[in-house]
């Protein structure tokens, strides 16, 4: 199993920046693809960004392209989400995700508790 702990959320004005961190306890961190998801009140959880465990490739939701950057530090077993040019509609609880692939079963997902990001003036 893997435990995930997010940090870095808070209150920021529109146009501001935040950097979220997610520290993983997994002994084999590189086995996991990692990602960030978010969920606003009344909405479904949606994908923000992912980063591969195999080649480091990334993908982003259209609504964050050009503003957010996901990265991983395998030595620190940590992923980051740099968020710039924040908008009020970015307000949500942001969740760290670890996905473990398998050839004999469906992928297994592990989730952090979430960190609140509020963008408001």
Structure description:
The protein has no helices and 11 strands. The model has no long low-confidence stretch (mean pLDDT 95). 0% of the residues lie in helices and 50% in strands. It is an all-beta fold and 121 residues long. A hairpin with a 4-residue loop joins strand 7 and strand 8 (78-83). Strands 2, 4, 5, 6, 9, 10 and 11 form a 7-stranded mixed beta sheet that branches. A 4-stranded antiparallel beta sheet has the order 1-3-8-7, with no helix packed on it. The radius of gyration is 14 Å and the shape is globular. The chain has strands spanning 4-7, 10-12, 18-24, 32-39, 46-51, 58-60, 68-73, 78-83, 92-100, 108-111, 115-119.
In brief:
The protein is mainly beta. It has no helices and eleven strands. Strands 2, 4, 5, 6, 9, 10 and 11 form a seven-stranded mixed beta sheet that branches. It has a four-stranded antiparallel beta sheet with strand order 1-3-8-7, with no helix packed on it.
Main sheet makeup: 7 strands, mixed
DSSP summary: helix tally: 0
Shape: globular
What series of H and E elements makes up the topology?
EEEEEEEEEEE
Distance between the termini: 40 Å
Report low-confidence residues grouped into runs of 5 or more: none
Structural class estimated from helices and strands? mainly beta
Number of strands: 11
Write the layout of secondary structure elements.
Layout: E1 4-7, E2 10-12, E3 18-24, E4 32-39, E5 46-51, E6 58-60, E7 68-73, E8 78-83, E9 92-100, E10 108-111, E11 115-119
Parallel strand pairs: 2-11
Antiparallel strand pairs: 1-3, 3-8, 4-5, 4-9, 5-6, 7-8, 9-10, 9-11
């Amino acid at each position: 199993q893997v435990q995930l702990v997010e940090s870095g959320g808070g209150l920021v004005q529109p146009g501001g920046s935040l950097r979220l961190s997610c520290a993983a306890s997994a002994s084999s961190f590189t086995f996991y693809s990692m990602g960030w998801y978010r969920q606003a009140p009344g909405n479904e959880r949606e994908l923000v960004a992912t980063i591969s465990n195999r080649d480091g490739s990334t993908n982003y939701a259209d609504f964050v392209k050009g503003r957010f950057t996901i990265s991983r530090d395998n030595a620190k077993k940590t992923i980051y989400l740099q968020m710039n040019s924040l908008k009020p509609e970015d307000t949500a609880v942001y969740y760290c995700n670890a996905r473990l692939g398998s050839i004999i079963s469906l992928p297994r997902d592990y989730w952090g508790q979430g960190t609140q990001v509020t963008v408001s003036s």
